Amino acid sequence: MSAVKKPNPALIVGKYAALAFYLIFALFPLYWLLKIGLTPDALIYSEGTRLFPSEVTFSNFTTVIFQTDFVAYFRNSLVVSLGAAFFTTLFAAGAGYAFSRFVFAGKRIIIALMLVTQMFPLLMIIAPIYKIVADLGLLNSLTSLIVVYTAFNIPFATFLMQSFFDGIPKDLEDAAMMDGCSRFQALRKVVFPLTLPGLGATLGFVFTAAWSELLFALMLISKNDAMTFPVGLLTFVSKFSVDWGQMMAAGVLALIPSCLFFIFIQRYLVQGLTSGAVKG
Amino acid sequence: MARIELRDVAKKYGSVEVLRNIDLEIQDGEFIVLVGPSGCGKSTLLRMVAGLEPISSGDFLIDGERMNDVRPRDRDIAMVFQSYALYPHMDVARNMGFSMEIRKDPVAERKSRVAQAAETLGLSNLTDRLPKALSGGQRQRVAMGRAIIRDPQAFLFDEPLSNLDAALRVEMRLEIARLHQKLSATMIYVTHDQVEALTLADRIVVLNGGDIQQVGSPLELYERPANKFVAQFIGSPTMNVVPVVGTATGVTAGNGAEIELPDQPLTAQAKELGVRPEHIDVVDNGSGDLSAVADVVEHLGSDTNIYVNVKGIGSMMVRKHGNIPVKSGERLGLRIQTENAHLFAKDGTALRRVA
Prior knowledge:
The complex is a heterodimer.
Chain A: H1 9-38, H2 44-47, H3 59-67, H4 70-101, H5 107-117, H6 122-135, H7 142-166, H8 170-178, H9 183-211, H10 215-220, H11 229-233, H12 244-279
Helix pairs in contact in A: 1-12, 3-12, 4-7, 4-9, 7-9, 7-12, 8-9, 9-12
Chain B: E1 4-13, E2 16-26, E3 31-35, H1 42-50, E4 57-62, E5 65-66, E6 77-80, H2 92-102, H3 107-120, H4 136-148, E7 154-158, H5 166-183, E8 186-191, H6 194-200, E9 203-208, E10 211-216, H7 218-223, H8 228-233, E11 240-246, E12 250-253, E13 258-260, E14 272-275, E15 280-283, E16 290-299, E17 303-310, E18 314-321, E19 331-336, E20 342-344
Parallel strand pairs in B: 3-8, 3-9, 6-7, 7-8
Antiparallel strand pairs in B: 1-2, 1-4, 4-5, 9-10, 11-12, 11-14, 12-13, 14-20, 15-19, 16-17, 16-19, 17-18
């Protein structure tokens, strides 16, 4: 057999064509969001499906920022998403570490139960959740969303963190303890720095999930000043009309934190996903 | 420097007993090798000495002081792991100096000790590298450096060479032997490789199925194994063991061949005869104790390995020094060096020899 097969040029062109097609498919809606956001209101319908707007305006953006409650929604979303991401990662890291390292009674059952929670469609449990939150007097509060998002993301995040901890050899902790660390010091000095990719990936995952969550936010929040961004977007839909330009502009603005977050953790995420994947 | 004692130590996981009746006294500066097949409990025993694994029952003493419940960090013992267990996010210097960093030793002292250890181990120009940028042998050296820098009471090695290729293993084995000469510290070394055990140990502890089978110097184990397990585990190639019927003066093999064993007082109890491949002589067909047909012949240059079939007994192996011109299919006579033969009773214990 020859060592290296000569690459078939047609195959290479084909691969790039497929990639290009996919990229256009995936990115076009984003472009469309931006395009409509930049098109003056008066032209939105008359322009139809023109690829480029004939006129560009930032008025939709300025209106959204200065004349609507968008900034408040944005801030609420940020609080809820960061809060949910922080608490989920905190708990998932603890649980994941325990699952990865310790043998204890009921471990298999707890893991099985956590899997079971992932099987129910959210719609099925939204009524009881509403009741619980109402009884706790937490309706229309950001706390309710942080609690609910944290609860719902913990199982998956725990499995994610567990796979990261599984990827860190136990020998390293043993070595650290032989070197004079207490268990806690071993965690802090050796395990924690090596788990950063996992923590980053989990934070990113929960942040994005919470940032775009609509269903619970819609159910649990009805007061304007506690609305998160996805619910706030609906205020651009009035009974008789939809303010497309402003809605799209708000959408573009809402993408920014997610993008920044992903640029920030992207390096860890790629590492993290591979280290998780290899472990299987 | 430390004298380590284990008194009737046992280890249980739930109802499963993985180690029992472990009595062992290790002298100050002694090099002890724990050897046995995988699953025999040797690594568990080492981890119990390290303090990484709780001791279920019995006493563990260092210099006469009971240390069962003392944390690993307070036992003043260093350990080299099979996986090296280098901290991937720290460079070589920090890996080696980590214990001093934790102990909050003065930075200047740490630096000079790290530099000294790096010098000793030939790592001086690698101190700013991360473990991933090192070869297997270099990683192994860093792991050793991390242990020696602390100047501990005792060193533990958990199969430290098994991840290295053959050539490097020999080289590192030599370095560990030199390290022991230089530091003359107490060392406990776990391996499943009997060559490492025989070459490094002052005394070898052979473990099987959670029990100590025998404790002794390498030559003691080779010359006077306590039972069939030790006999077959120590020595390479493996000892031939064939079923026999004991008589008053010797044994009768399965093919009817009678072998006189003047050195053995207890021949009547013998159920099996053990002969190492190097203790069988090849003689002319028709003479000797057994007649055999050569099956596979391996010419190694320094030695010749001859796998033979003996009618009524089965296959055996013969190893002779130098190049023996035997061909596959050739008929040979085999003479057993009776002064080096071993007899085993029904339960596998070795029957005592005269000498």
